[in-house]
UniProtKB/TrEMBL annotation:
Gene3D superfamilies assigned to the protein according to its UniProt record, in alphabetical order: NAD(P)-binding Rossmann-like Domain (3.40.50.720), ProC C-terminal domain-like (1.10.3730.10)
Known role: Catalyzes the reduction of 1-pyrroline-5-carboxylate (PCA) to L-proline.
Name listed for the protein in its UniProt record: Pyrroline-5-carboxylate reductase
Lineage: Bacteria, Bacillati, Actinomycetota, Actinomycetes, Motilibacterales
Protein source organism: Vallicoccus soli
Main location class: cytoplasm
Residue ranges occupied by any Pyrroline-5-carboxylate reductase catalytic N-terminal domain in the UniProt entry: 4-97
Compartment(s) of residence: Cytoplasm
Length: 269
């Protein structure tokens, strides 16, 4: 059997991965999807030309299974899936919080599990996808899992113990930047700019700053220092941020996200 990939659960992440694999040149005939609602299945079949199959059939048809359901739905998915997953399958979990061992326990002994934390920039081929091997996954399994994510952005391997922190940083990270853009656009309104102008200024500034961060190789402090003139505007803003505890708020926020990822380990709540 050639490499056929099943995406089990095709919501935001599942569909983003599916579209990314197709953009990367994988033929639609190599991809299978399983969803809960028939209309959603029809939509995906029409949009991408992929096969939409019941869970058991998808699991039997594919060599690699990508689990892209919410952590809270993972238990039910694995219960339904387990009888159809042979020991030769590679299972790639995209779920936050769920340890690879929790998935291994519910599947046949020896099934290879790789845990991946990606993020929504999959949609624009700028994802950060971070992989960890479960106990039965070999280097070859990690390579295979990495090949799925490499075309849609950067990949990195970490020990699984770091995955809750990774989830807090890069998994949830896009939302923090969107939130900042929203808040800075509001600030533009406060300063009297039309919303559309404020939005465009902030988005282009975010793109410019992100590109400098990625391409210059400079430390962010150096980049910030180059913006801050003595007794100028920027240091006035930075002092206000320090007064309002923005740095402390970020430390607390990411700690909260990490803790929530740990709580999701049980797949409940
Ligand atoms: N949205 C994000 O930014 C990120 C999400 N993740 C993880 O990806 C996973 C999916 O998240 P989203 O796509 O945001 O959620 P979502 O709610 O958009 O998608 C989940 C999909 O799974 C389907 N589903 C549930 N049980 C199913 C079953 N038994 N069989 C078939 N389909 C089933 C649901 O109908 C839904 O369409 C989660 O575990 C989340 O932690 C990871 C990184 C980023
Ligand atoms: O908010 C969440 O739980 C998921 C995991 C990382 C990003 N979104």
């Amino acid at each position: 059997m050639g490499e056929r990939i099943a995406v089990l659960g095709a919501g935001k992440m599942g569909e983003a991965l599916l579209s990314g694999m197709l953009r990367a040149g994988r033929p639609a005939t190599d991809l299978v999807v399983s969803v809960r609602r028939a209309e959603r299945g029809e939509e995906l079949r029409e949009r991408y030309g992929v096969d939409v199959l019941p869970l058991a059939d998808a699991a039997r048809a594919a060599t690699t299974l990508i689990l892209a359901v919410k952590p809270q739905d993972m238990g039910a998915l694995l219960d339904e899936l387990a009888p159809h997953v042979g020991a030769d399958r590679l299972v790639v979990s995209a779920a936050a919080g769920i340890p690879a061992a929790a998935i291994e326990r519910r599947l046949a002994p020896g099934v290879a599990v790789v845990r991946v934390m990606s993020n929504t920039p999959v949609l624009v081929d700028e994802a950060m996808s971070v992989l960890s091997a479960g106990t039965s996954a070999t280097a070859e399994h990690l390579d295979r899992a990495e090949e799925l994510f490499a075309p849609v952005g950067r990949t990195l391997r970490v020990p699984e113990a770091q995955q809750d922190a990774v989830t807090a940083l890069s998994g949830s990270g896009p939302a923090y930047f969107f939130y900042l853009v929203e808040a800075m656009t509001d600030a533009g309104i406060l300063l009297g700019l039309p919303r559309a102008v404020a939005h465009d200024l902030i988005v282009q500034t975010a793109v410019g700053a992100a590109t400098m961060l990625r391409d210059s190789g400079e430390h962010p402090v150096k980049l910030r220092e180059a913006v801050m003139s003595p007794a100028g505007t920027t240091i006035s803003a930075i002092r206000a941020m320090e007064d309002h505890g923005v740095r402390a708020a970020l430390l607390a926020a990411l700690e909260a996200a990490r803790d929530r990822s740990r709580e999701l380990a049980s797949g409940q709540g």
